[in-house]
Amino acid sequence: MSEPDILVIGSGPAGVSASVPLVEAGRRVLMLDGACADDPEPSGAARILGLALEGLSNEDGLSPKLRAPEARRALADFRRVHGVEADNFLAVGSIARGGLSRVWGAFVAEFDAADLEGWPIGPEDMAPSYRRVAERIGISGTLDDATGARLGTVSPLQPSLPLGAASDMLLKGYRGDGPLLLGRARNALISRSREERRACDLRGGCLWGCPLGAIYDARHDLARLMRNTNFEVAEKAEVVGLEKQISGWRVRTADGRGFSAGRVVLAAGTLGSTRLVAPLLPAIPEWRLLSNPVLATPLLMPRALTASPKPCHDLAQLAFFLSFRDGGDGYVSGAVYETKGLAASSFASQLPLGRRAGEAVFRYLSPALLVAVTYFSGAFSDNRLRFEQTGGRLSIRGGFAADFENLAQRTSRELGRHWRRLGAVPMPGGKLAIPGTDAHFAGTLPMGGTAANGTNVLGELKGLPGLHIVDGAVLSTLPSKHATLTIMANADRIGTALSRL
Amino acid sequence: MARLLVTGASGYIGHQLVEIARTQGHDVISLGRDRADVRWSQGEPVPEGVFAGVDGVIHLAHSWEADAKGNAGLNGDSSEALARAALAAGVPRFVFASTNSARAEARNAYGREKFATETRLARLPGAAGRLVSARIGLVYGGVPRGQYAMMRTLTRLTPVLPLIGLDRQVQPIDLEEVCAGLLTLATRPDLAESVYVLAGTPMRFGAWLKLLRRAQTGSGLVLLPLPLGPVLALSRLGPGSIRERLLGLAAASPIESTASLEALGLSLADPAVRLDENSQNEIRALLAYMGAKPVTADMEADLAKGMASAGLAPIGLSRRFVRHPHFLALVDPPANHWAHRLGKALHLASQVVAAHQGEKPRPGPIAIAGLIVTDLLARPFRLLFGRRYR
User: Fold this and answer.
1) How confident is the model at residue A105 (pLDDT cuts 50, 70, 90)?
2) ipTM
3) Is the CB of B351 less than 8 angstroms away from the CB of A343?
4) Taking burial as the number of CB atoms within 10 A of a residue's CB, which of A1, A460, B47, B264 is the most buried?
5) Rounded to an integer, what distance in angstroms lies between the CA atom of residue B79 and that of residue B260?
6) B residues 334-353 near A, CB within 8 Å?
């Protein structure tokens, strides 16, 4: 390719979402990817244990999702490359092709007017992009229940997939007469086959990656993009520096290569992008990093112990909302998961029983065992990020806002009452996870922000035109809802705007 | 079967010796600091009446504290008092545990002292043909303790190791082989020599360390030889026991063991094979306990790799568990004790089994109730016996 019009840094959900409208509009796009074309997909036991046995481990503090070998590999490389130091914080990120979409939970939701409070854009600006992204990635879910409207009305939906037995019981017991909203989850998981991706057949084992391609992964889009002659990927291009030129930008990589273009779209993930942008800004002593405080509670549906099991996927089964006050940060949202897809060994590690007995207990309980994962608004996170100019390292100190833990306890108790009314028994062991476990990082370069790190509606910083940050870093706030779909839609929105310039 | 009295029964060799002797049907009275029939340690008065009906004494006890505090006489005096009492009580056989570094002119106090004690005991009235010294080489295997545990940790933690005495020759011998030799000596009065050597084929200390690292991590070890003089000078700053250990290393020189081993009917295993065999047998036992049916070579390979990278191989499981994996239920630690070595190994084994043969079928409510009750009943045993594999 002769000199590209636009360099896109990062091959994750934000990078591909910004690229699609640009490539469709005929712009020449060169994507810089820190990884390279993939290793062959492991099969058999290696799918679970990892090709280098990364999955075989004694770390039990991690969420099941982050324990899978895929996630371990991604995290290890990410921390090495970005030199992230973390204190009371789980620094999750990925430099693998496809970014964090390789290990995500695939839960999707649209931000509504209340969620977009404080943003320089409104629902009408986002709607076309939500529609395009949803169409592209394939979403299954429904509008016809209590949570349908809250999850968004714009995205085209494929039919919902069947629920597991315990989730089904929980939902059937729901009358819709209290403050709790409960309905079917909405996932980037297809129930109708399309192109190379085949519909979910409820085979399970989702945590280890989907061999059908039913769960969306940015690599699907990347494969499609690569069929265009005006799109190319530079592999192993681990970006280490950005330089403003008289016209346009120059990007340096770790192996000494340099790339130039009129515009740069930065989609390295919130932590990666922040690290690349920080040297261009006047020194900021401490940055605020938003994340969603997360609380996981095991729920037992005793009636499901004797019911015949139903095949289901391992992604979120149900979605719920509970408001505790007015405003965009005044509610929690969450997802209910079945547990049959979890490894008995990690559950047993939480029990004071011998390993064999503990695992047998889990196998007995798991058809009736659900996990409710509750997310709080990023407004309740208090994570501090420092950038060290000399070594280029990030250090993050995780924390919660003052008095948050009381709120979390109150909310947890109230949710517990609702679960009991629906026939589920909250089990001990529910606790706030260490900050960062959610991997929903955002807000270091907020759109509409007035300080030096604020960006405009095109993700540009003051005095640095032509550098467009399009990932989670530019979210103005981080509501309780899962942000991935919004990050993708926002990248699509900015990409579309750039394609018209 | 014989009635045997074993001192130092809570130590590295003693613990295993008592276990093996008892499985072979011997009647054992154990003397030791803790977890023994009679609480006794070197320097204390000889317990009364313990020699009644005893066919053989195996005297393993040794006080390192006394050595470190410069009270070198304590071990010799105490051993002499014990041997004198045993011989006077008519015990037909007294086996004194000595070292392959026992020499009049040994550089380390331990070697000189053991030699001096050997000589003193041999001169006791009635010693001829009844008192025998076993000069023991570098013991490995079993549950890692003492010097063996230290060498394992050292070689596991770092791929590069600066050390003195790498060229000296050591004579590794497996713990079970030592125990077999000691039991033979204690029960066969027809073995008439006054000294027998329980030590393996000499090999360079450096090569031994490399072997230990390979057995545990599967990777190599780079050794940096340090000059002895300056290191010894530096060691004067630390506690006396460090200097003593260094001198012990520097003084190591091989002694002939073929004739002794032949007389005792021992043919020693190659340590490389032995270390590997131990972990391989253990791996099979762990997989079988976690429900592998059958244990396949692929599972073994995965667990071996996982245990090596976690620094867990070998755990040092006793033979009982290796032969009868279901007895592991007696030591299987509560699964939320994450730091427990056996617990970690079982966790890895469980993941390997699940990955290879899928999660097991769901048990019924009665089976679960039974399992939980059994588990709670076994708990005191686990906390007690499982401590060995922490």
Assistant:
1) confident
2) 0.73
3) yes
4) B264
5) 23
6) 334-336, 338, 343-344, 346-348, 350-352
